[in-house]
């Protein structure tokens, strides 16, 4: 990932998916439909957990690995 960031080399959709940058590849005409499917699946989940997990993701982006793992464990134990 660092190489991708530092080289600023354009990626194909397939490479971006393989690297985990994207979850789905769809044609432009199917984009809204797929987005709604994903959103509907998220809405069907326990919203307290969705919000807590989203907070963990946002917090993790600011932390080193050790603190990240500690935060994930702490949040998981609250369930």
TrEMBL record:
Belongs to the enoyl-CoA hydratase/isomerase family. It comes from Glycine max (Soybean). This is Uncharacterized protein. Gene3D superfamilies: 2-enoyl-CoA Hydratase, Chain A, domain 1 (3.90.226.10). It comes from the Eukaryota. PANTHER family: ENOYL-COA HYDRATASE, IP11341P-RELATED. InterPro entries: ClpP/crotonase-like_dom_sf.
């Amino acid at each position: 990932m660092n190489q991708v960031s530092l080289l600023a080399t354009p990626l194909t959709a397939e490479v971006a998916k393989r690297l985990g940058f994207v979850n789905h590849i769809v044609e432009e005409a199917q984009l809204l439909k797929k987005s709604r499917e994903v959103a509907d699946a998220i809405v069907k989940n326990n919203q307290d957990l969705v919000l807590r997990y989203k907070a963990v993701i946002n917090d993790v982006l600011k932390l080193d690995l050790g603190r990240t793992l500690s935060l994930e464990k702490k949040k998981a134990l609250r369930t």
